[in-house]
Amino acid sequence: MSDDLIKELCNTPGVPGFEQEISKIVLREIENSCVAHLKDPMGNLIFQVNDTIKNAPVILIDAHMDEVGFLVSHIEENGMIRVIPLGGIDPKLFYGQRLTIWGKKKVEATVAAIPPHISDKSSNTSTPVEDCLIDCGISFKKLKSIIKVGDQVTFSTECIIDNDRILSKSLDDRIGLYVLLETVKKINKKNLKCNLFASASVQEEMGLRGARIINSKVRPDFSIALEGTVSNDLPGIPPHKKLAQLGNGPEIRISDKYLIADRFFNKHIENIARNKKIKYQLTAKNAGGTNSTAFQVTGEGSKATVMSVPVRYLHSPSSVCLAKDVQLTIKLLTATIQNIHRFKDE
Question: Exposure check for the chain: N or C terminus, fewer CB within 10 A?
Fold first, then answer.
């Protein structure tokens, strides 16, 4: 596992609409491992991994480049800043956090927090993100020369990898993107019996926007969205609410709020996992969503599913996943691609 690449992916800013720096990393890592690629008008990167094989199935693997974050929406005359959220962020997690504002130069800031001894302890409500004040401690005049409305803002936490775990912001979906990059680099393209495409998509956190236009370019028979998925395996949580659990391998998703995965494609992947003795887990839920929904129902559609690395504390400043789950996801994805030509509808 390349710790340096994971750290670079996680530490590089890229909220929806600002994926260009992540895009540069993706191009650097796999451009020379593919036979062709294009960037569409939205900024999606689409790679044709191997030479075209006539009458072979087409499989698309995708990971999105954007992370949840914020945009500067207003600068007060006292130098305080207001932001709006991009993606699903719990206001309770936002209060009192350190942020990085990516202006002409990066500026560290904090979400203003009222000292507990003067706060209203009777209030149980959370202040909406857009109503919070962001404090840089910089004068209005100087701040205006560095920061403007529309600049991107991220959590400021940096990626830490030790003790066989990864602790970082933006594991949704930089860990899925890492799985995609390593799979494309390591797979033996000469032995493929399919037409493999890979996409690094934009603006997933804002309603699967980038993925909605990829199918018309690729026209896949099969599609797999690669994700960091919710793990709720905490003490006191009932077993039926734990969802994917750390250490149990990749999640193969049956359903979420917007997706009913192709059950025969899922069964095919399960059979591969059992035959290869790759640990995996199934989840069925009615919350969340991924680019798989867009790949399933746009263009001519495709047989779609989701393969994910379990992650605790998703969309927070500090998410947690395990290195072994990442490695098992790469292993299962590689085996699925190598055996997709064996798929049979039942």
Answer: C
